[in-house]
Amino acid sequence: MKSKSAQPRGQAEGPVVGIIGGSGLYESGLFPSKAVHKVSTPWGSPSGFIEEGEIDGVRTFFLPRHGKGHTIPAHRVNYRANIDALKTLGVDAIITVNSVGSLREDLPPETFVLPDQFIDFTKGRPTTFYDGGKTYHISMADPFCPDLSRTAVTAAASSKIRFATAKTYVCVEGPRFSTRAESRFFRTLADVIGMTLCPEAQLAREREVCYLPVCMVTDFDVWAEHPVEATDIASVLSSNVSRVRRLIRGMVPQIPNASARKCRCQTALGEAGL
User: Fold this and answer.
1) 179-238 pLDDT per residue, tens
2) pLDDT, tens digit, for every residue of 60-115?
3) Which pLDDT belongs to residue 230?
């Protein structure tokens, strides 16, 4: 087991991709493991060891957000350590897997959603790497990498996966599910609801890493007739996970080199300092 990675590969050698697995995706199942990394960060330990391999020649790392077997609830995930650890390993593009509830009739369970906006209703999570000293006000007007988004849409079409785009994700603190009143309120704001997107997305932007969430609908939230229960969600996860692995395997080889991307993710801090 390695405590640190080899030096990051240069941009000319291709992208270096990080996959953060969500509920149900605790082991990558994406590639034969070539190495396992235990990474230390100034913000503590990430959620677990980080597995390294390749997908069609693309150097890829996998980290389970909730730890092996879902031992870490969403509100206790060390998001800063997770993002910083992947950056330390040379990752320049992160794809995350997020299980979500649906706030729309036309987004039934097993639908894949590619959001383009989020609303943050979390309460007590550290949201920045810059708590003192130098201050940065990063732009999150368009929070997800457009280059990764285009790659995901192309890969989803090739994989014949149902993929809804241009949706808004509302992130709540958890670990409890919403009340009916909360769910009806969130329906006026967003399309899907989950517990893990924030502060992960803004931390990736602060580390100037391209970031894209792939959301898997597991249930209708409690605005619908049947209240959400964990057992209902578990029955959908296995189907979703097998399809998201297929999507990621198709997507990773199509990700452009960092130097070829036209996004502004990689220069976020240069535009954010005062």
Assistant:
1) 999 999 999 999 999 999 999 999 999 999 999 999 999 899 999 877 666 666 767 777
2) 999 999 998 889 999 999 999 999 999 999 999 999 999 999 999 999 998 999 99
3) 65
Identify the residue whose tokens are 């199942």.
29
Per-residue 3-state assignment (H helix, E strand, C coil) for 185-248:
HHHCCCCEEECCCCCHHHHHHHCCCEEEEEEEEEEECCCCCCCCCHHHHHHHHHHHHHHHHHHH
For residues 160 and 250, give the distance between their C-alpha atoms in angstroms, rounded to a whole number: 11
Q: How confident is the model at residue 134 (pLDDT cuts 50, 70, 90)?
A: confident
Q: In the chain, how many domains are there?
A: 1
Backbone angles phi, psi at 132, to 5 degrees: -170, 165
Whole-angstrom distance, CA of residue 15 vs CA of residue 67: 25
- Catalogue the active-site residues: 219, 221
Determine how many CB atoms are found less than 10 A away from the CB of residue 69. Answer: 10
CATH number at residue 159: 3.40.50.1580
Query: With left for phi above 0 and alpha for psi between -120 and 50, is residue 31 left, alpha or beta?
Result: beta
Question: Looking at the domain assignment, is residue 50 inside a domain?
Answer: yes
